[in-house]
Structures are given as C-alpha cells and as structure tokens.
Amino acid sequence: MPVKIDPKTHNETRAVFDGYTHTAYPVDVHITTLASGMMPHAAHHHAHEEAIFLKEGTLEVTILGKATKIGPGSVAYVNSNEEHSWKNVGSVPATYFVLALGREKGA
User: Fold this and answer.
1) How far apart are CA 13 and CA 10, in angstroms?
2) Would the pLDDT of 105 be above 70?
3) Could you read off the pLDDT of 34-49 as tens digits, one per residue?
4) pLDDT at 62 over 80
5) What are phi and psi of 51, to 5 degrees?
6) CATH says 3-101 is which class?
7) Which pLDDT score, from 0 to 100, does residue 67 have?
8) What is the residue-wise DSSP string for 29-76?
9) Under a CB-based contact definition with an 8 Å cutoff, are residues 50 and 78 in contact?
10) Any residues with CB less than 8 A from the CB of 95 and at least 6 apart, and which?
11) For a Cys staple, 101 with which of 22, 49, 65, 66, CB 3.0–4.6 Å?
12) What's the pLDDT at 10?
C-alpha cells in the first residue's frame, strides 16, 4: 500500500480500500500512524460515521467535548455529525485503522 507522508507532521496514511457493499453503501478503510504529540487534523464533523481501531500507541479521543485516553486494542466510534478529534498523547507512534461508513466520495 502506498504511503502518504505529511511533510509538516510526518504522519503516515495508507489507503486500504474504498468501495461499496452489495446495497451500494460506501465503506472505506485507511491506516494512519501519528507521531508523538500529533493529530491527523483539527476537530471536525461530517455526515459519515467512523470507527477507529487502535493497533499500537496511546490516543486521546475527544467526541462531543468528552476526552478519553485509549490504548492498543481499543475501539472508538463516532456517530454522524459528532464533532471529534484524536491526538497521540503517548511517547511512541500511534497506529490505527479507520473504518468510514457512508463516506461521500472525495471526502
């Protein structure tokens, strides 16, 4: 899988797949590795739902203003239009998978 590296943050992203279910519902998965202290982007919201699956590291996940620290093997779920963000609050890189459900193409 090709890796995109952000030149400012050194965060890495890999697209795993981007497709549709048998009912034409959009689904995509990507993998991100965040450097210590980094965020993938500022807090935001969108119509599609997301689940993040943390493989390694420590993230602080904030959903609707409530922050929770999660570790390897943890899962966080974000409903449609909920403001959310996450940040690597550990001392080592954090790698996680994002499952986006219903993502608009190009979003």
Assistant:
1) 10
2) no
3) 999 999 989 999 999 9
4) yes
5) -125, 135
6) mainly beta
7) 98
8) EEEEEEPTT--SSSSB--SSEEEEEEEES-EEEEETTEEEEE-TT-EE
9) yes
10) 31, 32, 33, 34, 54, 55, 56, 57
11) 49
12) 83
d(CA 56, CA 75): 12
The two three-digit tokens of residue 73, written as one number = 């093997």
- Under the banding of pLDDT at 50, 70 and 90, the label for residue 83 is very high
Mode of pairing for the β-strands spanning 12-20 and 26-34:
antiparallel
The structure tokens listed for 99 are 């499952």
The rounded distance, in Å, linking the Cα atoms of 107 and 93 is 25
Partnered with residue 70 across adjacent β-strands are 59
| Pairwise CA distance, residues 55 & 100, whole Å | 17
Query: Which of helix, strand or coil describes residue 28?
Result: strand
Return the closest-CA partner of residue 52 out of 71, 26, 65.
Answer: 71
**Average pLDDT of the residues in 21-27:** 93
